[in-house]
Amino acid sequence: MRFSTILSAAVAAGPIVASAAGQMGFALGNKKSDGTCKESSDYKADFAALSKETGSKIVRVYAASDCDVAQLILPAAKSAGFQVILGIWPDTDESFEADKAAVVDNAPKFKDQVYAITVGSESLYRGNFTGPQLLSKIQDVKSAVGKGFKVGTADSWNKYADGTADAVIQSGSVDILLCNAFSYWQGQVLSNATGSFYDDIFQAFGHVQEKAGGTDKIELWVGETGWPTDGDMYQHAQPGVKEASTFYSQAVCGMVDWGFNVFFFEAFDEEWKPHAVGEDGSVADETSWGAMSADRKAKYNLKC
Fold first, then answer.
1. Is 224 known to be catalytic?
2. Which of 4, 118, 137, 285 has the most CB atoms at less than 10 Å from its CB?
3. Active-site option among 39, 94, 219, 224
4. Model confidence pTM above 0.90
5. Quick check: 214 and 208 in contact, CB under 8 A?
6. Per-residue pLDDT reduced to its tens digit, 248-273
7. Max CA distance (Å), the chain
């Protein structure tokens, strides 16, 4: 769909149009470039770089117990004036219980720093749970952490748009939903990447608001989007610094300027990650998705 068409559709679709500038956040890994766990000093340095280069004051992490991230990042966030969305990985019983325990142990001590808690990251997309099964995990966490915390999940845009997540949306149990959308992984040419991204997000947000019964029932964020600066071409999507910078300024900053909250994937390159293979057999390199290099140097202008 052409970008101009997306703009026209968005303006016409009143329920999903926001006002004032949104928040920009960043997905943040918990490992150093060599694959070892980050320490408190690393998170402090991460926050200093993000604050300087982007002005952002919020990050999201994925598994609260892994590398003791909840225990280490929350005090650092307090010192730096940041907030954190803590993640719980429910896909195995072991990870679910460990992450839940880490959140229960640490979140009450740092209520001002915990923006929200997500249970699952693309669990529906991977087919690891049905909507009702994921809802049960979310409700378990809500009960465990008690009042005063926003709890929800993060998943791919199409799992919201196609009804897979309806049980979660309509339950009245979720406070926040994060919606991931990657034009790059859809193999889009750069000229269509912004329009494709907007189309995906508006389909998802529109469906959520319809099923939730209003625009103010569930807080919505773009949970992940981004563009790699290096690696192999994925279908028609070309990685590169120029391409990533264009997507960031047009798609990401455009969404924020429109009043929507966005998490960019990701803050820093994660050189330790192994190469993977995409669904079509193409190489899927996830080592160069950072807005900044592993040594915390901005690759392009990160101020919207």
1. yes
2. 118
3. 224
4. yes
5. no
6. 999 999 999 999 999 999 999 999 98
7. 49
